Amino acid sequence: MTLPDTATVLEALDRDGYVIVEDVLSKEEVTAARDELGMLLARTPVGRTDFEGHLTRRIYAIFAKTRLFDGPATHPLVLAVLDHYLYHYQLSAPTGIEIGPGEVAQALHPDDGIYPVPRPHRELVINVMWPLDEFTEANGATRIVPGSHRWGDEQPGPDAPVISAEMPAGSALIYLGTLWHGGGANRTDRPRLGVVMHYAAAWLRTQENHLLAVPREIVRELPERLQELLGYNICPPFIGYVDGHHPRRLLGDRAR
Description:
Structural class: alpha+beta
Largest sheet: 7 strands, antiparallel
InterPro entries: Phytyl_CoA_dOase-like
Helix content: 10-25%
CATH architecture: Sandwich
Distance between the termini: 38 Å
Keywords: Dioxygenase, Oxidoreductase
Number of helices: 7
GO molecular function, one term: dioxygenase activity
Number of strands: 10
Pfam families: PhyH
Order of helices and strands: HEHEHHEEEEEEEEHHH
Radius of gyration: 18 Å
Strand content: 15-25%
CATH superfamily: q2cbj1_9rhob like domain
Protein name: Phytanoyl-CoA dioxygenase family protein
C-alpha cells in the first residue's frame, strides 16, 4: 500500500491534531517486534502509579534492549513530520506499553504538559504510536480529543468529544504534543501492545536520559541519524556540546 504524502499528513495534523497511517510496518516486522518485546515484558513489572497503570507494563530504555525499532524511529514520513514542526529534535520517551486486561483508562493529558510553557504555543513535542496488536475501543486503544491541540487553558470535561484511535497492527498514529489524549481501558481478556515514540525539540530536556540509558558501546553501532536522536548531536548554535566539542566525538573513531 502506498503511504500518504507528507502534505496530506500535515494537513490532517493541523486540522485534527492526529492522523492514522495504516500499513507502515509489514506483518513480518510486527510479528518480530511483538515476539521480541514479549520476551522483555516477561521480566517487566507492572506500573507503580495511576498514570503508568497498575495493570500496565512499560519497557523503558527501549534502544538499549532491541534493534527492531531503529527503523520505525527514523522512518522517512516520521522524520518529515518532525522536520516540519520541530526543526531540531531528539527522542524524548520511547516506551513499549502493554495495557493488561482490567486496566482502567488513563487520565487525559497533553504530552507537552510537563514543560511549563503557556498555551497556545508552537509544537514542542510530536508522538508516534506503533500498535503491535490491533487497537480497538474495547482493548484500550489510545483515546483522543480531536481538535484539542488548538485549546488554550481549556481541559476536557465530561462532555468532551473523546474518540478511540482504532487501527490495525502495523499502523502509525502520529499526534501532536498539544493534543489531549490517554490510554484506554482494557475490557478484554488479552493485553494490547504498542510502542510510543515521543520526540521533543532539541533545546528541551528529554524525559528519558538516553546518554545513560543506552550503553555507549551500543550507540557506536547505530546509524548516525539514530545516534543524533539519542542525544549525540548539537542544537544550533551550540546546545549540547561536550568540553567544547560535538558529542559524537565521545563515540570514537567510527562516529568521527
